[in-house]
Amino acid sequence: RLPTHVTLKEVGPRDGLQNEATHIATADKVQLVNLLSQTGLSYIEVTSFVHPKWIPQLADAVEVLQEIKRHKDITYAALVPNMHGLERALQADVDEVNVFMSASESHNQNNINKTIDATFPILEEVVIGAKAANKTVRGYISTVIGCPYEGYIEPEKVLYVTDKLLAMGVDEISLGDTIGVAVPTQVERLLETLLKRYPAEHFAMHFHDTRGTALANIMQSMEMGITKFDSALGGLGGCPYAKGASGNVATEDLLYLLDGMDIHTGIDLQKMLEAAQFIEQIVGKALPSKQMAILRNE
Ligand code: HMG
Ligand code: MG
């Protein structure tokens, strides 16, 4: 019933660092991505082309993408909110363009300053522009289970946004439990709704581990046929416009689980830990992953 292969999409350099208060030098971000490129990952979300006033940490997005050493088998992606961002992302020759919005109205307003319905035409323009430049497009939907302002979100709201994004030509949807409130029964209910209409290949899951439920939710998702998961090394991460959001599920903790169950990822756990040790030393504080805690206690 469980898959034999799973793809992990590393979002640490973007989702992890966007929430990090300590200023991180461009050279250190480049070094982080270069270390991640040696782990066997096939996908790295490198940075974000949002307004630097909103996310000053990632203001050097063009430089980072231009300075990393690229591997031909790795997709180097970035967040893009609008045409202004797309222009910079194409200038930096991003491989994949990642648009984003929320399933809940109030989180969408707080995060990107628009209503849900006013967001669609903005993203559609980006999708058209990205496709014209021969780029694939990923679409994030945030707050798919819980919203910091509205509480529980009904699956129908997620389906509504999913329909629109797929109709625009988005290649893959990443479903975000932005504030890490989900439990497996809720994941089951959400996926039942979506998988009635679309094949599992359309979806990736993006769990934050605020309440320690991310791995349980990933197990539930795999049992329902999902084979793509977002994670961040060290458990770095969070959304600065979602109060109480903490890190993504830690890549190395997820790898421990998958390796132990003989579910292949192609990623070397040891090399992932080396990259996590590097960034831990740069941010200057203990990262939340269990594997890192084990290393520190050795
Ligand atoms: P806005 O202020 O509504 O934008 O922001 P606007 O279109 O009205 O433009 C205002 C000014 O900003 C203009 O400049 C634009 O040129 C400029 P002016 O003419 O006044 O001088 N501008 C830009 N500059 C640089 N880059 C740009 C850009 N866009 C406009 N891309 C906007 C709208 C979406 C840009 C803003 O709200 C924003 O940047 N929000 C970012 C929020 C964010 O980054 N959140 C975190 C990422 S999402 C997340 O973490 C969740 C996820 O991980 C999944 C999950 O966990 O659920 C993906
Ligand atoms: Mg996130």
UniProtKB/TrEMBL annotation:
It comes from the Bacteria. The keyword Iron does not apply. InterPro entries: Aldolase_TIM, HMGL, PYR_CT. It holds the Pfam family HMGL-like. Keywords: Lyase, Metal-binding. One of its GO terms (molecular function) is lyase activity. CDD domains: DRE_TIM_HMGL. The keyword Nucleus does not apply. Residues 6-273 form the Pyruvate carboxyltransferase domain. Belongs to the HMG-CoA lyase family. NCBIfam families: PRK05692.1. This is Hydroxymethylglutaryl-CoA lyase YngG.
